[in-house]
Amino acid sequence: MAPNKQKITIYYVKYFPDNTLLWILNNRLVALSLCIATERDDTLSYRAMIESFLQSLGLTDTETRVYLYLLTHGESIASIVAKRLGLKRASVYQILETLEAKQIIVQFNKNNVAHFDSVDPDDLVLLCEERVNQMQRLKQKAETLKTEFKKLREKGKMPTLEIRGKIKYYQGLEAVTQLIDETLKEKSSEQLCFGLNTYHTELAGDDWGDYTEKRVSKGIHVQSIQPDTDAAIAYKARDKKELRETRLVPHSKFPGKCEINIIGDMVAMFSTGTHEQMGMKMYNKDLAEALRSLFHLAWERSEFYDKKKS
After folding, report:
1. How far is Cα 235 from Cα 223, in angstroms, rounded to an integer?
2. How confident is the model at residue 186 (pLDDT cuts 50, 70, 90)?
3. Could you tell me the pTM of the whole model?
4. Residues 6 or more apart from 231 whose CB is under 8 A from it?
5. What are the start-end ranges of the H helices in the chain?
6. Which domains does the chain have, with CATH numbers?
């Protein structure tokens, strides 16, 4: 006669301080070590660590799922992997090809059917060692090429470029600041200026005050035509103190987003707007004279607008 099989029902679970889990099973007290629960927690923790490690190797979430399936279930074919993981078969084929390229699974034929399996865990360690070696070799190449990279970076910045001492280009705010400072080295005591740039009103800070003091100390007088913005009105209010005569014209007719300076035979142009900071300085007597003539024509007309503003 076969022994009677008694159904076991769990009625109550409680943790006690002595690390013993007591279960009441059909009125019988059974003591089980808490290590069972601990092992379950450890398993979950290690799985999270494994997934994180695989993602560090460059695997996506789905690639990780496929790899772990092969690791835990052994060799399989693509259709079964797709069915077990609820993925499209075409996607699984692509993933398996990717994993094989990453050298963490292998493919082989069995009965004329492609089978896939995870590599031995020891091979993962070897793969990591090879990647470390690759990065070491890459680091050595980077050290060798570091100087060349720096040259390319400096060439790309190209803050100033001079052509035969007659034309000089400036790129970046620091280079434009250099251009503005260089205007103080000109021998002429007259400076004609179109436009008030954001360099003076927003960017220069104390540098602009220092520049103005140096210009005044050198006795360089400025004639300036500016759009009638609030910044230009404040600029005009300091004319007497800063050795300058400013005339305001309608902003609608002269937006003045860049600045042109004519000093002797030198013409300096620059812009420090939000899009790009750049400038140019050239020495050409005829060009400077032509721009000076245009300035004087504009200066005559600006008197009309300036009086209306006053």
Report:
1. 12
2. very high
3. 0.49
4. 196, 200, 201
5. 35-56, 61-73, 78-85, 89-101, 121-157, 173-182, 198, 206-217, 230-237, 285-309
6. 1-119 (1.10.10.10), 160-309 (3.30.870.10)
